Amino acid sequence: MERTDNSMDQAQRTAEYKEYSPRESRLSEERYLLFLEDITAVFDGFKALDVEALGIEHNELRVIIGPNGAGKTTLCDVVSGKTRPTTGYVFYDGADITNQTEEEIALRGIGRKFQTPTVFDSLTTYENMELALPGHYRLWSNLFGSTTKDQEERILEILERVGLIDELHREAKYLSHGQRQWLAISTLILSDPKLLLVDEPAAGLTDAETALTAELLLELKDDHTLIVIEHDMDFVRQLDSFVTVLNEGAIMAEGMMRDVQQNEEVIEAYLGR
Amino acid sequence: MSRVTIFCLITLLSTFFSPGLAPPSSAQSNDEFIRAEVQKLAAESGAIRKAAVMTLAKSGDMRVEAILESFKLAELYLWNDVVVLCKEMLEDDDYNEFCRLSDALTGEPLLDASGKQYEIPIEELQEIAPSRAERKLTNSAKFLARLSSPDREIRMSGAKKCGDPPGIIESVSQLEAMSENDPVKKIRYIAKESLLLIRLNQTTLERDSEAHLGIVRELGKMKSMRGLPRLQETYDGLAQGFEIPVAAKDEATKTYKFAVDQINGYQSFVGGVGNVFRGLSLGSVLILMALGLAITFGLMRVINMAHGELMMIGAYATFEMQRLFGHSPDNPSDLYYVAALPVAFLSAAIVGYLIEILVVRHLYRRPLESLLATWGIGLILIQIVRIRYGDNIGVNAPTWARGGLEVMQDLIVPYSRCFIIVLCGLCVLLIYYLMNHTKLGLRMRATMQNREMANSVGVNTGRVDRYTFAFGSGIAGVAGCAWTLIGGVTPDMGQTNFIIDSFLVVVTGGVGELIGVICAGLGIGVLTKVIEPTTIGPFVVGAIWAKILLLIIIVGFIQFKPAGLFAPKGRLSDV
Amino acid sequence: MFRIGALKQVGDFLQDAGRSKQSSTVNRGISFFVPWVLFFVGLVVIPLLYYTGLITIGTVNMLGRYMAFAIVAVGLDLIWGYTGILSLCQAFFFSLGGYAMGMYLAHHGGPEGIIDANGWKIPACLYVVYPYKVGEAPADALVPWFWKPFYTLPVTTVLGLLVPGLAALAIGYFGFRSRVRGVYFAILTQAITVAGWLVFCMNNMKLCGTNGLTRFDRIAGFKLTNPSVKVSLYVITLLALVGVYLLCKHVVKSRVGRILIAIRDDEPTLRFSGYKPYIYKLFAFCLAGMIAGLGGMLYAPQMGIFTPTNMEASASILVVVWVAVGGRGALSGAILGALAVNLLYNFFTSEKNLWLLTWKAEYWQFVLGGLFIGVVLLFPGGLIDLWRRLVGTQDNDITTYT
Fewer CB within a 10 Å sphere, N or C end of chain A? Predict the structure, then answer.
């Protein structure tokens, strides 16, 4: 679905979200792939997340920024099922996934890359990639099936692209931080989910690598939906997408990066009072 | 729990200061009177002898019981028309028998002019031989005599014996007086109970049904445990429809049933409370064990399987102190236990310290490996102790920990278990203080939450670990010392009885908070002791099934709370 | 087809060439050779030695029992070495298998002539726990229902695998479902083993109490005391070990093996990739349980008695030490470790005179304790890893545990 108006301001969008209650109608709503409604996450009295409404459209690349402790990662946790929200609902692709387990959510096509790259240390690069191949979640097929030629080529293609081809049979624990970052991104790309949650993809990468990451993500945008969490403003500028600013768990501003940058509130939140 | 301890303390104190030692007023009698009566024991006429026995019994003099006992055993003799006591026979080389004489009343040796005890040939003495009926009477009289004793224990046993079947009818008037006037409440109760039991025997349903049922009602109201067997027997007879010629049979059955139910209900209530109490003390030992485990696991993610052996070391340290002080049941030296507590703590702490330095230090955050290594340490410790001490030793509890306190009628709380609960409470308070109000505690908590960070702000985490580990080990030693009061001591006691249970306490309670361990420990202890004697149909659950049942309960519990009762919360916590 | 150029170092090149899929058959490490050497020795050398009279039938029998232990160890390696789940109930599963076979053997053993009211012969070991005198067979001294299925060998064999498998399924289901992990699971399984031990020790469970199952006589009609039967049992055990090894090897080499390792490394992440870890954990746990049951079934006839001591808490941890000593994460290590530790046990539990002290059997506990500590602190990779480090060969059959 084509994005109609990129420069819509926050008030407009939020107003639009609100029209979508009652929640039954959301289940059949086709415009948004992901929709969060009245989500709060409370830890021991501390409100880490308090989002009234947030909708991600099909094939959108949404960047979420915000200062430390703004609740960016918690948002990802809630969507991917790692954290149960205290209140509210998560709708994805016509279904309520609020209380589903991590693996159920993953099987619905939500993939995730963590802030610290999570790869399986004792497996080689190739084996890590193999595990990310989609469609092999059943015990039986894993016990007797083997990787097909096509799949192998696809793996090698992606690894070639990110420059990990030389480390094909090296165990992941011997990879450098940057290489692990790449491997985590590669497995995410390979698993071909509908919605990608990418938590700080550029952390620990060089400028050139960051540029490549941005290029990859933009390529994915054509047939995937992405939520990218990032600190690095240059990187966000490269992506040139719709941005949601989180602060203290709540949405502070939404809009294109260049507009958001002008927002007084945002500047204040970033620079401190 | 603290409320329980306070209650225990209050009741303990109140018994010490209760005015139970004043002798009954009628007990004052002079020696002359008793000597005259003793003299009558040698009378020709059986009637006079019997009368003398009864008079003596009612005289209220403490020495009477010994005299009557001697009379029964035919140790009294007539010598120069005086009744004397001879407990000892001598034989010279020609097989002539001599008696050593003592005063019948005081039991002191009778001395001749030269100050030597009289040794008289047996031929010169005239034996006083009680008849069978007299012996029987004397037996009863002995208990009767106890009723006038100024000592409450003796008086209490007398009151009890008087009511035991078939019942001493002669005691009725005295029991009546006692049930009204005795200064000790418990004795008043027992006297009344005995009185009712005697009367129950005297009356029958057939003849005087009203009076009989009145007594039954009364016994039921008193929840008399001693009355239960007799009531139950008659009730069973009534219920099974034996041919008992009773006018109002239904009424009788109803009265009996009510009384039996009343007593049974009370007894099961008391039994339940007793079980809960036993559970609390078992739980206290488990808490003492689990505290150390929870702290070391929380602090350095190390599973110490040798923790049970540290407890065992505490128990054996107590044994060694007992030997050093020469404490034995015959020759008590209660001070040993006071010394044993710190010694048990220190010896277990030192061993724990060594374990930390030598092995555990290398295994931080590797719980599975530490589990294996410490199990190995446990094996070695067990074998060392087994070679040194053999398989079984006995620790005798100090005298103050024997016996118990009757908190309610028929509910006796052993002092040893009270002590353990109090000890556990003190240790918990100590740990709470240590963790929350001292510098070491602050460092411990800092290390627990973020080792690297603590290290970088100048906390010597290595030293904190060592002290913490030693401290946890020491607490296990104290647990071992406490356990000697209520359980047996063997080299593998930790491995077979405690380590799994205390880990289950940690698993159920969670490692986050002290309170979790306390709740889980008490819960598991009480549940174990409450389930054990439960009956399902004709079967008693018993220790083994109780254990299995408990395990199932815990597994079920974990389904809902995988990280335990009080799991660490927060964004960074990982189930 | 791989782009092998642009390698940083020649060493890397060699290493990678050795480790790449295509050439893995060329460079086999010690962990590949160890089992086959052992199997060769077991299958050819040992019988040869026996028939030439160099070793006694007792030794062959002993080795047969140790092979049964090795089977259990392979199972544990699958669940612990690969999946990272420390199960302390392998001895319990072992005993379930052992009791199954033991009941079959007890049915066909012991003195004849004690028949219950339903015409079943009461096994001698069961009879002694009934409170009746010999010669009496009161009406209520019956063979319990759960003894009856174990009358025939095929049913016994199936049940001997199925019962531990189902037990593992139940334990695993409740354990993994609630995401009990790491030490918590270890403690839980340990508690279950202790509970099982207590139950099997009870006389009124009609499982022969602490005496255990005794008076074995015949298996499938052959007398157990016959040396050639003993050799056959030994060979069967060895073949079973080979079979179990190959089965586990296949699992480990398949994608499931990689998933198991992924579970060990980082279970939460695997969940985000769409896998349901508990299915795989359950699979590995059940497989390990059934393998342990198989070991028990092979152990019982060779031992000639089966008692609850086989499932004591310490027995369970002992299995762990076999695997740890051999090298976890390498199936061959498990076999090597089980054999090595048991041969050590055999050596150190006989009294012998050393230079200064008399070695007593009870000192074995010190050796065992030392072994526990040593293997954790000094050589966590076990014998396999030790060898690898000494010789310096690369080995792609091992997944090292860090």
Answer: C
